């Protein structure tokens, strides 16, 4: 037998020996737990179904209605490698759903007169007003119309806490790639770079965005949510299984849906979103999102941590008029303004059809248009103002369908609204 044939045989044997243990190893049985009002059993049963069949590998979700927690479920694995199950207090990276949380904090600052959507960013941050950004308003910046999705060079994310002056100077010298206010283009990475610095400058105490979230939301409203994760909370975090782009491409191609074919091009085309990410704010960090030294950094673009209950409660407060247990989070006037799109036209990178003041608009399981935020892999949070419903969902296993179009999440929503209709009938 020739050397090449021997090598081929050895490779095949090695491959088989490597794979056999994984097939022989007993399959771990996932758990699902939680609470649900008896009238909403169908929602919990759907969640159980997907945990048991392996489609829901690790997730939590919650629905609030008029301040009442009606469904709160969690299940699957927080870390399959260590056989660690998802628990009631497991925290998960929220990715871009973090943007929506910070948008609510900006709205709170507007309520308090610390910010004004119609004022120039440079009114609060004078050195921002250069290189074509002189007249950019907060509304233009927060609605992804600023033309700052791409940057001239990138910086280490760590600079946001170790070298804040350098991070500021980097942000200040950026030049928009289009005239601010004339186009819509998702600022996937740079949203936090600009908004977080602005918030710290507008805040009388000059707190960073993580401290603002803690002081204005986490503590007063008893919501388990973070922007930048303290070392002391690491034991609760679900380990991330990143979005598999090859699987995403396959899922989109086999959907036989023109919408997903367009999304593929908008993601991976010559001027697509993935190209933008390569020149967007920070050095590449995709492989470090389980690194404690990285995830401790407050960053509204993608480094928020919470669970379904966290997001459902926060957006449920907004959906219920902005007040919870006598404490006012947002005024009705500001909520009404958040509910109105600022721009409604195709985005430059094909990701967004519309944008508001840091929030987006999409149909829910009932067909209503809701406002909220979505994140890579399927994270979602929204306020349904028509029905006074807050919904939150997070998963540590990135999926291909991440625009509130995952069939599991849509089924949860559909069943919830069906149950809600019957529930409200019984209360008449």
Automatic annotation (TrEMBL):
**Source domain of life:** Eukaryota
Q: Which segments constitute the Beta-lactamase-related domain? A: 44-404
This one is known as Beta-lactamase-related domain-containing protein
Native species: Pinctada imbricata
User: What phylogenetic lineage does the species belong to?
Assistant: Eukaryota, Metazoa, Spiralia, Lophotrochozoa, Mollusca
